[in-house]
Amino acid sequence: MSSFDHHIAERPGSDSRLLAQARQAIVPPLVDTFAMALGRFDDALFDRAERAGNAQMAFLDAMRELRRRREEIIARFRAHLEKAWHSLDAGEPMSMESALTDADAGSVLSLVSDQELESRLAARNLASVIMRDCKPVLQRLDRRLGWIAGNLVLDNDHNPIGPEHIGVAIHEAFATCELSLEVRLVVIKLCERDLVPGISRLYEALDQRLVQSGVLPEMPAARAPTRAPAPVPEDEHRHAEMVEDDEASAPAWAARFTHRMAGMKGGMQASMGHGAFNDGPPGYAGGAQGVLLEALHHLLQESRGSRETAGPQPSSSGTENRQLSQREMLSVLSLLQSTPSAALNAAIGDTGESLAQRLKSEVLSGANRLGVDPSTARLAPVDEDAIDLVGMLFDVMLDERDLEGRPRELIGRLVVPFVKVALLDRRMFVQKTHPARRLLNVLAEACEGNSGESAAERTLMAKVEEVVDRLTAEFNENLAVFLTLEEEFRDFLNQHKRRIEIAERRAAEIQSGQERLETARVRMALELSARLDGRPVPQAIDDFMRQPWAHHVTMTVLREGEDGGGLRDALALADGVMEELAEAQRQIIGKPWLQTWRPSLQKVFASVGMNADAASSAVDALHDTLQAVAASRPDLEKSLPELPQVVLPRASEDESTPIQLIGGTDTLDFDSTDADHFRGLPIGTWLDFIDKDNKVQAGKLSWVSPISSRLLFVNRRGVRFCVASPEELAVMVRIGRLRAHQDEDAFDSAMQGVIERLDPEKSAVGA
Fold this sequence. Notes:
Helices cover 60% and strands 4% of the residues. By secondary structure, it is mainly α. A hairpin with a 5-residue loop joins strand 5 (711-714) and strand 6 (720-724). Helix 6 crosses helix 22 (480-532), helix 16 (355-366) packs across helix 17 (381-400) and helix 20 (435-447) packs parallel to helix 22. The longest helix has 53 residues, at 480-532. It is globular and about 120 Å long. The relative contact order is 0.07. Residues 1-12, 105-111, 222-248, 262-276, 306-319, 651-666 and 762-767 have low confidence and may be disordered.
């Protein structure tokens, strides 16, 4: 009979004995499994060392470090699991986030090193692997453990033996080890290899024991995995997706474009039989997509004006200019793709030159390399449409997105491949699921605002460059390369987003720490001013109050807040010293000065780094000074011993942001309704911030200060770029620097810009 059997629960409610038995059934085996995995690391690290080149010593040192600290590592792993389980036992399951916050408690401003962030990320990736392999049994354990703990709702983040807490336990286990970042990540990866299979078996065993004890036996039991049906070949699936003529796949700009079509009906009907942009294969699009393409063709014709309507002109020899065939077009573009001309590269970097015009010029010039006389060659209308649209698309994207320097260059290198796509498959412009536009969207997301300041940003840009290099080298006329590259890069980007989550939390922690620091400094200054301003104070006491005591108060408020007992004690000490000074100034003789306060004074001096003897000497100096004041003998006043150079922590300056308010909020009106709206803005809301050059950057509300009510916004990489009050945000709305987020992908947003530029009432394509 199971040791659990006599504790069959018949109603929801906490059963501490059953919980204790469950803990004994899972925590020690988890620790033993971890210890066994740790014992196998030696061989793996030695193999790595042989292949590590210059990093060989780091792996050999790691082997010695792990042997030396083996018992400590295991104890730290066990300690976290025990701590997490005790929180469940107490009815308040600890989240993974709070566990990491507790680990940072020793740092006043909660600043986390890059190595720490990478280690946490690796541990969370390990947790993802466990969750992927053990998801069904973990869902059952969440419910069963929650039930015996008092009908609590557990999830992956709060289950004390779940993947997230195992990840934290592994992170904590190696936290004190002296390992290089590369080795630390390898060690965590070895945990994934050697630990996960054993964890899965332990989960299943615990689940079965709980079932045998009658804990929610009606839940479905684990089933052996069945063979999945043979997947549809990816190319076939995506091809079917691409040719789907469904209005649901139409891009967002198409809906805003529809109202323009009615006025163009006659022009479109006239164009449909004259080489229009949708004149059948290749890349044929029918139905609503075909109508959109025809409307685009009509706008392009209208924007080119009389130069196009005049038709082809005869050459001086009496023969018409010859249209380049599509094969010739693709050949010229392939040459440009592999070796772009200096003029084209210059146009990508020049905001004043039209990419469309430069592309057409380069194609006609390149025809000479195929033996075609450029002076007698011209572009077919359908091909010119493709070049115009792609050129304008990239013009808009490069002008309106935050793409500068290397990101602009890399996105610009995609222009020629995308012209080739437009020639091969015109549905790219009207089908949001098209693989080429999906790839462009993820690459633009990675590049936008990426200044390469952090290691993670530089790694992301290196991956973008790798994708662009592969595309320009491998893309001939087969769109499958876009599918492959988009899937690979999206997987990489998803991993990068895990880093963004950590960066976002770090930005909030930094901002919170800075506000707490500023609050502590203000409180210290107020208390100091209340006791010293306008009052004659001996130098020793003035030095004590303005240096050790001020530092002590600041750090106490930082750690405990303004309602903690530490601040009350510090204020009582200051008041006691000042009262004794008042007594001395009344010339009371023979009092044992500061006798009551000596322990507290020594503690304050110790807090700035003075040893016990030096602190005692400092208190003696204060005593002798008060005695001299009482005796009206200023010449007998003592100076404090030399104090350690302790600088009060300073809040770092706000990071520069792209938003600069003009004139300040005190001189600008704002709508109080807007301010109220921002006060209630939910965390996670995105807004569009517009800088003085009309470039738009999306910002996500990451944190709201409980102290100042200021709102912290981070960019798409989790980096802080705007901290503002609700009133300041309302001012930004009023002056046109802030708006609701337009949740469009880069391609869709750029196409909307193209439509606006093509509108004959607003602008026209340059000749």
